[in-house]
Amino acid sequence: YGDSLYLFSKNWADFRSYVYALPNTPGDHLAMRRDTLEAMGLITGAAYDAPNNVLALIGYTVVMRPIVWRFSDFVGTDFFSGTANRHEIELTLTQTEAIAWTAPDRVYFSNEAEVVGSAKLWELALGIDASVGSRDPLPIMVLHPNPATDTVRIAGLTGPAWISLRDQQGSEVHSARVSAEGVMRLPELRAGLYFVEVEVEGRLVLLRLSVVR
Question: Residue 198: in which H helix or E strand, if any?
Fold first, then answer.
């Protein structure tokens, strides 16, 4: 965009995406962080529609369901300042990796080959039906201890919440209702990486948990 390159990060730690900028000229440059998006998923690709000044980001949730963010009405390169729409696509176990505009409000996106299917190219009409521009930011939550063995506490809760624990394939291995103290006993689990979904005001906060034995 203009005289700079913009990079959108894929963050396993907090499911946010940071946008960095650096000059598009040869040489050694330091990428500067410009903004943060509460992506609620893993961002893997971006596409800018210059004639209509619209940005699209592609990614997927912790349970590998595709998500597309659409940003419009922003000024300059302040991409997240305008109207933001998050679309969750009704596909499962789909690791989306790239996106491109084909027409106003229409994109192609692709997914990698998976155990359950081959790589595919999809077409999607992006209507404006899921604005998140006026919503309050989600609370910041942290798991303690992490790594954990048999008990974990979710710091940052402001009230009781419903918790779902998923393995790396997206299968639910445990669920529980916890109090505002956020303490949850873990079931007998293999050592490894798990994902904790915390439902807050109808939205999900996604956290990464390491289990050790």
Answer: strand 192-200
Task: Determine the residue type at 168.
Answer: Q
- Alpha carbon distance 32, 21 (integer Å): 5
CA distances from 94 to 10, 38, 65, 147, 181 (A): 16, 21, 6, 28, 35
Instruction: Give the whole-angstrom CA distance, residue 10 versus residue 41.
Output: 8
pLDDT in tens, 148-188: 999 999 998 888 888 989 887 778 899 999 998 999 999 99
Give the residues across from 43 on adjacent strands. Answer: 59
Query: Angle at the Cα of 61 (from 113 to 192), degrees rounded to 5?
Result: 85
Predicted TM-score (pTM) of this structure: 0.62
CA atoms within 13 A on the CB side of 67: 19
How confident is the model over 134-152, as a mean pLDDT? 78
